[in-house]
Here is the input.
Amino acid sequence: MIAALADYARLMRAGWTLTRHDALVPREFAHMAPGSLRLFGAVTRVGAHGADLRPGQRLAAAFEKLGPAYVKLGQFMATRPDIIGFELADDLARLQDKMPAFAQSAATAEIERAFGKPVEDLFKAFSGPVAAASIAQAHQAILHDGRKVAVKILRPQIERKAAREFRAFSRAARMLERLSRTVRRMEPAKFVETLKASAAIELDLRMEAGAASELAENLTDEARVRVPDVIWSLSARRVLTVEWIDGVPMADLAGIDAKGVDRKALAKLVIRVFLRQALNMGFFHADMHQGNMIIDADGRLALIDFGIMGRLDETARRTFAEIIYGFITRDYKRTADVHFRAGYVSDSHSREAFAQALRSVGEPLQGRNAAQVDMSRVLQQLFDVTAMFDMHLRPELVLLQRTMVTVEGVARVLDPEIDMWDAASPVVRAYVEGAVGPAAQIERARDTARRAMEIVPELPAFVDDVGRAARIVAAEGVRKERPGGNGRLAWFVAAIAALVALLALMR
Here is the structure.
């Protein structure tokens, strides 16, 4: 009861902040609301800030004021333009995730608490904060051996604050699901759970260290990509130390040009590196916006900040690849079959009709570059298709969808004329050939045979056990005249015969 009251109080505080920014019942959309809600909006709008800003800009400002959990909520909302509209999603996607820095004394105290030594013993030099975000802030430091490093430190009490806010989010999401069937289809409660799980990983910097190390290992053979080394001896739950990378931020197009980097090639590299991570490894950087990419002194693409990572199991990877491949090859029937086979679309719908809907989305994109395609219209059509065929949110794919949109946006900035299908095709074709082609089918058959052969040494003992069980069942069936006793004996005999036949086939 107390927790519920506290949650409602937090939601009321959030509501008040939103009204102060005219982001709860925005004046631009008030005419679509019921009369009582219009009146409420008009009253609470008095004295609101940001009269010259768009609704999404005002909402982003309110979220920044409310704190870290709301910033993360805004970033994830930006992945659902089907719910909030494209302009609003675009404005939220620009959330800078910048917060006021916390005190230097708190940062040094956190480091000393984590490692049990004075900062001077750990670092030759330790700067003030160079960047402050919603979850943590970063400092530049120099080790005693001369290496330059970045030190990331979690905000004081951030875990407790985030837990309280996410609990309130969950309560609000459940309330919304009870109010509207349309909202239920979007499954906001699952959406919040996905957001909460992602934030929980971000709040343990040991997980980020592990992610950076794993990604670096996965991309070892990619000479054009760089991941900073983790300084394990100076990393803990609330402190992360990694190699510092000097370079040109991805957003600095003039700086990239000055380095002589081919922006068209760089745009393709960004797309292909993401697809390689998602398809080949099933583990990908899920926050590949411009602020998390740097062009280093050697012209390599450096990825930083590994707080948000995504994972896909083999089935999800194969499904994702086949869907993209179906669009690339214009095989919409196959693409539809993949959706049905994965359970993304219910069997109660027509496969032919769904293939037709996919064709209506895919055909206008063929042979056209990014400058010729209005992605907002394409996405809107895709969302219309999901509503028509009652496709629910797949929580495991939220990070993938979000990252795809982000990567596509980064590539467009680098090369406004990029052909997304052409850029993605080599990676997707190679994966599909390896995952579902003839060679993959043969390898899976061999793997099945190997697993079957593992039971061969145990087969004699198993047959003896089955024989003893069969004799007992037969004897009990005669003594007690149980109906079905002979049927059970026949079942055991059939099982033995099947195993013997399998053994003969393998040999």
Q: What stands out?
A: The chain has a mean pLDDT of 81. DSSP finds 23 helices and ten strands in the chain. The chain has four domains: 2-97, 99-132+135-244, 246-436, 453-506.
